[in-house]
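Take the subject:
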Amino acid sequence: MGRQQWKKIWVGSAGNMVEWFDWFVYASFATYFAGSFFPSGNPTAQLMNTAGIFAVGFFMRPVGGWLLGRVGDRKGRKAALTLTVSLMSASAVLIAIAPTYGVAGYGGAAVLLVARLLQGLSVGGEYAASATYLTEASDADRRGFASSFQYVSMTAGQLLGLGLQIVLQRTMSDDTLHSWGWRIPFIIGALGAAVVFYLRRNMLETEVYAESSEDGVERADDKGTMKALWQHRRQAFLVVALTMGGTVAYYTYTTYLTKYLSNSAGLPKETATLVSFCALFVFMCVQPLAGMLSDRIGRRPLLITFAVGSTFLTVPIMTLLQHAGSFWPALGLSLLALLIITGYTSINACVKAELFPTGIRALGVALPYALGNALFGGTAEYVALWFKNGGTESGYYWYVAGCAAVSLVVYLAMKETRDIDLNRVGAETGPPSAEAGPASPASGPAKTDAPLAS
């Protein structure tokens, strides 16, 4: 690919990296700043209050999906991407400068709450805005490869946050981290968001969106509206179902993995952290390879492979992980699980974008995805701990497998989306063929209708 194509990929996905860096450091540094915003005397209550504010971000994601998805469809992909990174930077700045309980009482907690509301709005819109941009800005035969960088950047953000935490823990005393050192990650996050904002201010609008606006293909009044989304409610439901199994599995083997290895498998925290870091690094590197594969053989084979693997291997993998005992067995099993999940993560962004017409694409991806993610991804850790506290931890393994099984049914029933012409989605061109082969270089991508569940 040329330099301009790589620049589009970088600008389109860089916000995800900063977004997930901020998201991760809030959760991981909560133990250090919880005492700064709530009365002393009960550390558990402090952490619970901080976790409660963290949870608010998940509830705001559907709101952000609706609001910023609407902006992306009505004002353009560039406008939505610029707005998400602005909210992102503002939230990081607020946390970095928030006054402590000793200075402003509960005023500091109020600032923290506002910051999390902004962060939830930003995360809810960033996924869909970047997914839509990466899909539309790519050549038709490279959409899978380009969109795979969404999870590359997301994982890179987590790894950067984890790496910074390790550095600060080794270079600062515990007292310093509790006093003011915890503010450093949020300052870095704000600076990173400012850089991304500058890059996105100079980005070009996608040709697909520009041509749609110029040609008047869709009524301007209907773009990005709930009325228009309702007309594509089957695709919206499909996005929720597509998300269900993938997001539960993703959160299980990423954000929850370190806690599981430490609390259930009995590995030292340092070992559990190293396992997660190494596994996530490999996971990040294989995303583009899977994306390229989907451009050759289609999206459905990868989605079906993920769903079959998660349905039948989750229980054995989680059971073996619980008895791993040391670094190498734990790393091997974690890598196996993440390689299976790659069938979903590497291409889910472009699959969802390929379902909707241009005028409703950003909202169509954003709102259903945010709802599915909040219902299943955001609750994954809580469901896991609920089963553990009830003495039936293995029940959670079956829960993850069951969610994957539901998604498997959807993957088997849906049409292939690889050869969709993004300018023709929703046009009355006849039903697409599930068995459609790859478009030849001479003829270009096949112009087929929007794929629906059979």
The first helix runs from residue 3 to 28. The CA atoms of residues 44 and 70 lie 40 Å apart. The radius of gyration is 22 Å.
